[in-house]
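Sample 1 of the test manifest.
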Amino acid sequence: MIAEIGHLLLIGSLVVSFLAGFSPLLRFLTKDDFFYEVISPLNNLVFLLIFLSFVSLIYSFLVDDFSVAYIANNSNTLLPFYYKLAATWGAHEGSLLLWILCLCFWSTSYFFLNRKKDVEFVALTLSVLNQIIFAFIAFTLFTSNPFERLLPIAPFEGADLNPLLQDFAFTIHPPLLYLGYSGLAVPFALSLSALISKKIDSIWARDARLWSLLSSGFLTLGIVLGSWWAYYELGWGGWWFWDPVENAAFVPWLISVAMFHSLIVTERRGLYKNWSILLSILAFAASILGTFLVRSGILTSVHAFALDPERGVFILAIFAYFILGSLIFYSIMNNKLPGRSTYNMISKEFGFLLNNILLVILAISIMFGTLFPLIYEAIYDGEQISVGAPYYEVLILPFAIALSFLQGVGLYLSWSSTREFSFLNRVLIESFSLFIIISLLVFLIFGTLNWGTFLAIAMFSWIFSGNFIDMVYQSSQVKELKSVLLRRLGMISAHLGTAFLILGVGIVTTFSLEREVILQKGESYQLGSTNFVFKEIRESKGLNYSIQSAGIEIRKGGLVDEISAEKRNYLSSNQIMTEAAIKPTLLQDYYVTLGDQVGDGKWSFKLQIKPFIRWIWFGAILIALGTFVSSFRQTKRL
Amino acid sequence: MNRITHYLPLIFFIFLIIGLFTFLDNEESDLRSVLLDKNFPDFSLSKLENQEIVTKNDLVELPSLLNVWATWCIACRVEHPFLMRLRNESTINIYGLNYKDDRSKAINLLDQIGDPYEFSIFDHEGILAIDLGVYGAPETFLIDKSGIIRVRHVGVLTPEVWEEKFNGVLNNLKEDEK
Amino acid sequence: MKNRTLVCILCLLSFTAESESSKEVYSFVIDENQERFYTLLDTYRCPKCQSSNLSGSNAPIAKDLKREIHRLIEEGKTDEQIEAFLRSRYGDFILYKPALRKNTLILWLGPFILLSLIVFLVVSWNMSSKRKSKDLEAEQIVKVIERTRLKKLFEED
């Protein structure tokens, strides 16, 4: 019954969002402003309907209504209630509904932040958003309805939620990621609305910047959680795989970062208007394209979603409608925008331009790399090829170097033309000293150094001194230290975040240790300067799985700790999952995975030491915090 | 000049969408065997039934099939009846490649459900399998009488697949002989 | 005396090393090959599982391939020879880092060509628009001079 209500609410929201989305057409025909004014209440109604529909799906999960096909496939009576909750968005259908809910949340937030603004502009923006909402509700209802019943015979017991997804990080990873993905629809709608109403001004730029900062922040958090989850859950110690699904999140992230940088110039200087609009279209395109790649099944990936070419056609149609439609508007309208004003090559404007070129070309290249196996197969008659991590590592390096170079000096460039270069000496001296100190520290910790680490340390020092040390120094020269630092807090935090991330990546890729070993009870293995001792093997039971766990003692210097590596057998699906044993410390993680029993009392293990891996996530979280701080400042200026 | 650059993104995305649409159409394809039309690799392994060593020379007298199977492979059971039918109705020799399996379990299974093979090669370590580029079971190869691999099929061998992929090649081979 | 302790320590070290390697699933005569082995595993794709490298896969085929790569390293084969071995059996699909060949040229060079092209275009646009604005300025100045000269002429009249 509840499921039927949810289904009806979803159908209702389809109708209402259609009305809200296409109401401006009636305004155009009748010239009656009523058709603008009605959009915002309709928009809020859609949010309410979707919210209730989502709640009824959650309710049906909690009461184990296995007559609903989606629930029968993705839940189970043995599942603890918080995983039943998470199972709501554990597979294709439910996660799509969550995506729509996130988008409705944004459109309603946009309305509440702007209800006292220009009626036409807000109405147009909301109508674009509702067209997107409409398209995705239609997609859900027609190809992936989570409320579909298994009638007349409902099973007594559900299959299970994929054991890989029965995990804390996974319960919050999708909501954050979808807030990021769907948030990119707002700058897109703002740009379209600005193109149509011909109000491409600094107010538009400020709004668009706020929403791109917000979605970028949520994308960052979503990606970090995904990376962290993959690290401890997939059991082989990788934190980034360059898998198609990860690329599908990374590409919109890169473009959103490019977008809020470009919008700074648009807001302050009135430049790059065309470019900012194009970026907002690109970012939204990348966000839908990601959805398409993941859910149409044209790319295979570890994150296998429900694969169905029919869904692929539907998403592609949505993609074509919005992206081609907006680009046609863009091409026609932007010829009429005022031309560029001039600026010197050594100026803030040009710095931002380079930053944008680097980020966008990197994003396009990653997307191209992701699609390349398909293109290759089509051109070379079925020949198959793989493009994976080793390729992307080569690709990203020069871009990362150039971007961090810009990051270190960008702050000191002046608008229009830079005439003062004394900063260069200071930053060089500061970063060189920092470089020497950190290299020494790293050498003391690990006993060796190589080119990869030197490079990472150099990038770290350069960004760190350009964004922090010199900032503090400069501010101490003037009286308003606090206000300067506060004003730049978001930016400083995000830029330092990238510095920590780069240092972490550099060190973990060059100093990681890894061995597959076979140990008998009581035996130990020395990896680097760490001793791993296999103490015992235990059998126990979890909530909905049975456990075999190996107690491993880690000894390094003064550190002695016991951790346990598990293999879980999930009863309802009979799937075996490995749970890695991880001992995190500030400088390195100790990571043990339990393998198979290989003879009497002998077990195989995979031992790993991952130095500085925490710094990657720490850096990324700093980036997210920075974007949130900046967007908070941005809302104050609305 | 400026006008064209404004239309560039539009043109780019039109091509992208057309491209993606054609990708959607593509049937999921198997990994192509690199060894197609190449010589069957040399090997020296024991027979499943007894410890007798067999080599490539024991296979190639007539066009023959090599079927990769194992007791742990559920899909192999699906194609088993069809292999039995082939053995009874067709003149082709079928050899088995018992892949990463337990010898006694494998012998038992064949005793129970019937043995479609002239003999099975016991490849516990997957040595010949790697040389053949096998990555799972079941897989089926068609080898002509000079020892060249003509067809490779990954997955269950059904009558439809047989008609589509194997029969034509086999008839060609027979005609060439005449 | 000193020498003897050193020898003892060396003996002890080599003894521990020996006993450590007996516990390794893949032990190597030459110690450096250990790192090489694990690096190689990261660059090859597991052919059975659609999106994982050999290092991260538990599939039987991945185990077999690890064993073969271990054997090839111990036989003294170079990275190129190992790559050729795998390619001749599983094709280009197994390489996560596509070989640089005519067919993959666009993948490897495309991004960098695009980058340099766009940077070049932007820089040259910037130069030309600046020159234009300078010309414009110069034109303005000329006009002003012209006008004052004309004015003067009229006034003289």
